[in-house]
Structures are given as C-alpha cells and as structure tokens.
C-alpha cells in the first residue's frame, strides 16, 4: 500500500513538474499584450545603462532596449514598467515571472544559459573586467594590489573573475561584497576599499558620479570577456525571436545608416532592399514575428538606432564619456554585427 502510495505521489509530482516547467512557454507576448505593458528588469542604478533622471524617469542604454521592445509590440515607448533588480535577485525574479525580460548589464555565460532555466539573447554590449583605484594610490597595474581591500558586487561574474585572477598570480587580496552599486560608492569615498573591481563600463559610470572624478583612475588591463545580452525564460520561442530581432534591428539600422531623422524619408525613397525590409515597406519581417510590419521603423523613429542610443547615454557629450571601443560596428573595427534580416 505504501509502495503504491509513493508511486502515485511520484507520478503526481512528475505531472505537476511537467506542467509547471512550460507555464510561460509561448505565452509571454500574449500576456504582455493582454496586460498592455511590458515589465522589464533593469539595474538598480548605474549611469549610462539605467538611472533615474532629475524627474525620476529611467534613462540609459538598457532602459532604451526595454523601450524598444515596448515599441515593437505597442508602438509606444511608455508602455513599459521598469523593475530595478540587484545582481543577486535578477535571475530569480525573471525565473519567477516577476519580469518579462531582463536588460541588466548581464554577462552571457555558459552556466547561466544552461542551468538557470533561462536563455540569453543577442549581445548588445561588449565589456571586460577591470579595476578602479585612487589616482594618488601609486597603483598602475592590478598586480600592485597585493593585500588590497577590493569592493565587489555580490552575485556578479566579477567576484569569480577577481578571485581567479589574483589566485593565478599568487597575490592575496581581501574582497568586500556589497549588494548594490550605491553602497560601493560611499565605501570607496570613505576609504573602506582600496579598489573597485567590475566591468569597465560600470567603472566609468561610477567615476562619473563621484564628487571629484579626476581623483580616480581606471587601470588599462582587462581580465575577462563580459558580453551583455538580454535574458528571458526558456521555452518561449516567439518571445525569444521578438527580443532577439528587436536588438538586432537597432544594430542593423546603424549599419544601414537609418537614423531617427531620416527613417521616414528612407521609407519613402530608398531602393535598398535591406532598408525597405527593415522599415516595413515590404511586410515579411513583421509578419514573421507576428507584430506590425512597421515595428522596426517605429523603434528607430522613437529611439534612434544603436549608435544614437549609445551616444545619448555614454558618448563624449555625457558624464560617462566611454569610447565605443568594441561596441563600434564591425565595419568600423568593432564587434557589433547585425545578423542578416532577410
């Protein structure tokens, strides 16, 4: 009797697991449409990627990526609710269905892709781990940080990268872990940390909001590959396609020279087949994603192409002032490359 009961309970558990795993499968786009709003996970606050402005409105590259998905679905960049998530809670929140997509300076790694029940999507930003120190510290390379106290953000790849590097050169250091970037900045200013280790873009962002940015140096060395991509839950191919090709469309627009200012004119006059497809003159791209044929045109008109978004949030005219480096187009010596949209 006990054996039969256990077998029945096991069968019921398998059935429950079998139905629970694909609960979101194929349904995210429909759920977003029915809700009338995209829910997007972002950083709790880092200049250039996601940070509220003086009016409390979120701004940044990741924020605009979220808005681009909202435009693709609704033709309205305001139909998105932003959910700030810490490094340690971001993937749990996504897996639990608290957000529809995660655009949050999240490195794409094999174990994240294969063990969390999530999928990462097209790379939209290339970065690498580095260190920032006081300009008067005398530190010129990471090797000089022997016995140093290093601030790190909990739940990031930077924890492992830092530990692996110093172990490889047999240099001891003392890690100090914080959950959020806004906790690290006062720790640096108070001298509780000799250095801050994270991706170079976030080092530049952190330096830009310090009272005296010139007091801080970002070391030239890079110790890892940190390709950022959006994350979604596994099992929803339609949603994967929509987020993937929305990201790609922004890069494709820059490759083709389609900008916020000229998109309307190019849609009327261009004879380039790739431009015509991108801007919805011919409908096949939108039809394949089950959305409006003008989806990519609407995105560029609302937000600009990838290059325009980058310059708006990280370019030379911004406090972050981060050179594009590997985030230039492949035709300009960078790594950004739009897959063929045909």
UniProtKB/TrEMBL annotation:
Residues 37-266 form the Solute-binding protein family 3/N-terminal domain. Coiled coil: none annotated. Residues 1-25 form the signal peptide. Keywords: Signal, Transport. The keyword Signal applies. The keyword Signal applies. InterPro entries: Bact_solute-bind_prot3 (IPR051455), SBP_3_CS (IPR018313), Solute-binding_3/MltF_N (IPR001638). GO terms for biological process: amino acid transport. Belongs to the bacterial solute-binding protein 3 family. PANTHER family: AMINO ACID ABC TRANSPORTER PERMEASE (PTHR30085), AMINO-ACID ABC TRANSPORTER-BINDING PROTEIN YHDW-RELATED (PTHR30085:SF7). This is Amino acid ABC transporter substrate-binding protein. It comes from Rhodovarius crocodyli.
